[in-house]
Design goal:
Belongs to the QueC family. The protein has 235 residues and is α/β, with parallel strands linked by helices. The protein contains 8 helices and 7 strands; from the N terminus they run βαβααβααβαβαββα. It has one domain: HUPs (Rossmann fold), CATH 3.40.50.620.
Length: 235
């Protein structure tokens, strides 16, 4: 195994999925860096939460603290200039005629991965880790396994590299994501995800529910709440 394959870059938004993926990467790779994106998202509160969340993750394990390296926050505001969606505009969340919710931001995850790959190439990080998931409610086409596999091929051809894209949540549901977090970091990580991560599409940070902060009614909150309830019921 090459040195680069022991060095990972995690797409880290500050949400439940990316935090679980960061814990997954820290349990496997010798050096882990994080990357986040400011793209004019409606729930920009996640960007506010990122620094303190990273600091608290360091506090969960001396080994994780040693492995966790630099954080990179990049401006991708051009995404909000290219399309109007419920993720970037103050509009109601609803289904579209193409069968996708209007929270789908065309090209977002593809651009995230390409930019992350460019940074990884420069910093000799051989693994990209993302929280994309096919079992999520949305069916976003850029979260599908085929899309990510095709993107990995294209990136490596275009950069003459051998980057690996890892998606540890691809085939599990939200209840299993909570269970994975518990296996990786115990109750402390589960509690950290509940209290300090942000998932709500509307950016609500006020009320604290059993599963965390959020409006409780947007698709992201409903999915997170349902998964947490199933996780707790099975305990």
């Amino acid at each position: 195994m090459t040195i680069e394959n022991q060095r990972a870059l995690v797409l880290f938004s500050g949400g439940q999925d990316s935090t679980t993926c960061l814990a997954w990467a820290l349990s496997r790779y010798q050096h882990v860096e994080t990357i986040g994106f400011d793209y004019g998202q409606r729930h920009a509160i996640e960007l506010t939460m990122r620094p303190q969340l990273l600091q608290k993750i360091r506090g969960l394990s001396a080994d994780w603290d040693h492995r966790l390296g630099e954080d990179h926050l990049l401006d991708l505001s051009l995404i909000s200039q290219l399309s109007q969606t419920a993720m970037t505009e103050n509009i109601a969340i609803q289904m579209q005629e193409n069968g996708l919710p209007n929270t789908f931001v065309p090209g977002r995850n593809l651009m995230f991965m390409l930019v992350a790959a460019t940074l990884a190439y420069r910093r000799q990080l051989g693994v990209l880790v993302g929280g994309m998931c096919e079992t999520d409610f949305s069916g976003y086409p850029d979260c599908r396994d085929d899309s990510l596999k095709a993107l990995q091929v294209a990136i490596n051809l275009g950069m003459a590299s051998r980057l690996n894209i890892e998606t540890p949540l691809m085939w599990i549901d939200k209840a299993e994501s909570w269970r994975l977090a518990e296996r990786l970091g115990g109750k402390d990580l589960v509690d950290l995800i509940r209290h300090d991560t942000h998932t709500c599409y509307l950016g609500e940070r006020g009320q604290m529910h059993a599963w965390g902060h959020g409006c409780g009614t947007c698709p992201a909150c409903e999915l997170r709440a349902k998964g947490y309830q199933e996780f707790m019921t099975a305990k």
